Amino acid sequence: MTFAEVLVHFPEHLLPARRKKRPYISSILSKNEVSREDKYNRKLFLRIRHGHYIINPRLSLRVEGEWRNVYELLSLDMIGIEHQDVQGAAYRRKHYDPDFMAERYIKQFAEKIKSYTEKGVWDQPF
Length: 126
Hints:
Number of strands: 4
Helix content: 25-40%
Largest sheet: 2 strands, antiparallel
């Protein structure tokens, strides 16, 4: 699910329609990339490939006076996908299953973030 698909449900008084569109969202993500040099850059996002971003793995938030890594605070086990309706289990055994592939990539992502968080190592390429 994309940011635009999520943001479309926000009421107009919270988020104007122009800010729910992909070009605006992309501009905000790119302006706040970790590697971008700009005095207004907050370095909130790490681009892992064109159009694909994650929250900066080095980002820490202050919780009850203590700085904690953002991925320690997120429930990575709750990350998932909206399953596509593909003609039942028999169909899946014989054909490509988009849900299986998406779940596999999400699991790999969560495992990599957990590993980095436990080791405290964020200098390796993602």
